[in-house]
Specification:
mainly alpha; 3-stranded mixed beta sheet; about 290 residues
């Protein structure tokens, strides 16, 4: 009897998950913006962020804003995320995005890139995580698992709102992982956006080569282990480039004041793009 009840309950859960009511656990766009702003303020307070006048910041913002300008107006109206771009003065080779719009690049990654197209590859991926609300979806799924089936059914039947912005810890903002589906989707959407902005998708491959070269560091190794299989992503990007009849423009070099150690690859490989909300080992609370 218990087994039958559980089966019925599970079937009911599967049914309601396809309805709008299942979104009761998902932070709204407004909540995502508020959470992201709060977390970004903490990053700027606790870590050394380069000033607006720094040429590295100007370069990242110019590329980021170029990508944002091509997000459809209908999407921007529906999801008025506040996209911002900053550079953390740290040698770590990483970047991350926060819900609602803030994106942070590490100086260490920027110093190992050579072209605007490579930077666009990273930013396109991170923008996709924000645009398609991957953190919010991961948060909702995590809450459903933690609450358990019985509580979930009660809440669904009550047609209530389960998300409470005050209950979201800073740690959860930075440590909640994405699914492989999210990561693959961010790769594809990031590629599409950078091509639309007339960047060369080879830049994405160059980022992968940088990360592969730096794979000896614990940060990069840990990061790479949480992402989809690199060979599969390489195959996907190679197929897209080979199948395209588009003549991509040559990559545009970053100024000398922006980078110091980098290279441009001649091979076509797909980067394991930088994950949002991995672990910031340099900080005890905001650990990415």
């Amino acid at each position: 009897m218990k087994g039958t009840c559980l089966l019925v309950a599970l079937s009911l859960t599967a049914a309601v998950s396809t309805t709008a009511r299942a979104d009761m656990f998902k932070p709204s766009v407004k909540d995502q913006i508020a959470l992201g702003q709060k977390a970004a303020a903490s990053v700027r307070k606790d870590m050394r962020v380069l000033p607006d006048s720094d040429p590295r910041v100007k370069a990242v913002r110019q590329i980021g804003n170029r990508l944002v300008s091509l997000i459809p107006k209908s999407e921007r109206d529906k999801k008025p995320f506040q996209y911002t771009f900053d550079v953390i003065d740290s040698p770590e080779i990483n970047a991350f995005a926060l819900p609602g719009g803030p994106i942070f690049f590490y100086r260490g990654l920027l110093e190992n890139l050579q072209t605007e197209d490579q930077v666009a590859g990273v930013l396109g991926h991170e923008l996709a995580h924000i645009r398609y609300e991957h953190w919010a979806s991961s948060y909702a799924n995590n809450q459903k698992r933690q609450l358990g089936l019985s509580v979930l059914l009660v809440l669904l039947n009550a047609n209530s709102t389960a998300f409470d912005i005050a209950s979201v810890s800073d740690t959860l903002l930075f440590t909640l992982p994405y699914s492989r589906s999210n990561e693959n989707g961010a790769d594809k959407a990031g590629y599409d956006l950078m091509v639309l902005a007339r960047f060369n998708p080879q830049g994405m491959a160059d980022v992968f080569r940088v990360l592969k070269e730096k794979g000896g560091s614990s940060k990069t190794a840990e990061w790479a282990s949480s992402h989809p299989d690199a060979d599969r992503r390489i195959s996907n990007i190679e197929k897209r480039i080979a199948a395209s009849s588009t003549q991509y423009p040559a990559q545009t070099r970053l100024g000398r004041s922006v980078q110091s150690r980098s290279f441009i690859s001649t091979k076509r490989t797909l980067p394991v793009m930088l994950s949002t909300f991995d672990r910031l080992k340099s900080r005890p609370v905001f650990s990415l």
